[in-house]
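Holo model, zinc ion. Inputs:
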Amino acid sequence: MSLSPASKPVKINVDRSAGRLTIEWADGHRSEFDAETLRLLCPCAFCQGEAGRPGWLDTNPTLTSIQTQLADVRLIGAYALAPTWADGHDTGYYTFESLCENCPCAECTAVRRRPS
Ligand SMILES: [Zn+2]
Ligand SMILES: [Zn+2]
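Output:
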């Protein structure tokens, strides 16, 4: 898998007490994910479902503070991050590409909403 330069992180910062993940990309852009936003993006089969079956997040669950508390973030090779949540959930591998695509900043949100 090759990353486009824009989805290559140059700096990753995890602020556990604030519950925030900040990524600075090679193109100078900065993405700030709060823990809840990040939790809702969890790409694992349990959360998002697989093979057409809905996942846990499709049931619009009410997240508890334990479920949205970042306990740890592991770097998976050079392509992904795997957060561990305080409830023990750690099976979501967030590729940098998907994190880049899901950047929650106003600028990126506006671009995604624009019909192509
Ligand atoms: Zn998950
Ligand atoms: Zn952005």
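The chain has a mean pLDDT of 93. Residues 42, 44, 46-47, 89, 91-92 surround zinc ion (ligand 1) (CB under 6 Å).
Archived with the compound record.
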